[in-house]
Amino acid sequence: MTIRQGSCGCGKIRYQVEGEPKRIGLCHCTDCRQESGAAFTYYAIWRKDAFMTTGETAVHHGRHFCPACGSRVFAYDEDEAEIKLGTLEDAPTGLKPTYELWIKRREPWLQPVEGAEQFMEDRI
């Protein structure tokens, strides 16, 4: 079974996910752009029971971040864990997006990910 590990920028928050993600996406919405400070976010969704974390996080709108360094790391609910893939220790990850959200906000100089499903806004 594949085990991937990651952390915040300072290492006080650590996590691990087991197995393969349920889905992998890019999001170009305003919230994700503001949260990441970039043109999009790159994330994957795992089953919640495949996710483990250590360290104390702060939470804003359901998104967990490190109170020491400010890195946004993950979000989760009772069923799923969403991991910011840029926080994984090993890059490149080999995880290719299978869909893109909020493409109406995608920068015009960015090309669609080949083979990825495209959504004008949220997945339906």
Structure characteristics:
1 helix; single chain; glutathione-dependent formaldehyde- activating enzyme (gfa); three-stranded antiparallel sheet; eight-stranded mixed sheet; 124 residues; mainly beta
What is the mean pLDDT? 96
Question: Describe the biggest sheet?
Answer: 8 strands, mixed
> Which structural class fits the helix and strand makeup?
mainly beta
* CATH architecture label name: Alpha-Beta Complex
Give the percentage of residues in beta strands.
Answer: 35-45%
Distance between the termini: 30 Å
Oligomer: single chain
User: What is the helix content?
Assistant: under 10%
Order of helices and strands: EEEHEEEEEEEE
CATH class descriptor name: Alpha Beta
Which value, in Å, is the CA radius of gyration?
Answer: 14 Å
Question: What's the name of the CATH homologous superfamily?
Answer: glutathione-dependent formaldehyde- activating enzyme (gfa)
**What is the fold-level CATH name, i.e. the topology?**
glutathione-dependent formaldehyde- activating enzyme (gfa)
Per DSSP E runs of 2 or more residues, the count of β-strands stands at: 11
- Number of alpha- plus pi-helical segments: 1
Strand order of the largest sheet: 6-7-8-9-4-3-10-11
Q: What is the domain total for the residues?
A: 1
Q: Are there runs of 5+ residues with pLDDT below 50, and where?
A: none
Give your account of this protein's structure.
With 124 residues, the protein is mainly beta. It has one domain: Alpha-Beta Complex (glutathione-dependent formaldehyde- activating enzyme (gfa)), CATH 3.90.1590. Helix content is 6%, strand content 38%. The strands form 2 sheets. An 8-stranded mixed sheet has the order 6-7-8-9-4-3-10-11. The protein has a 3-stranded antiparallel sheet with strand order 1-2-5, with no helix packed on it. The radius of gyration is 14 Å and the shape is globular. The mean pLDDT is 96.
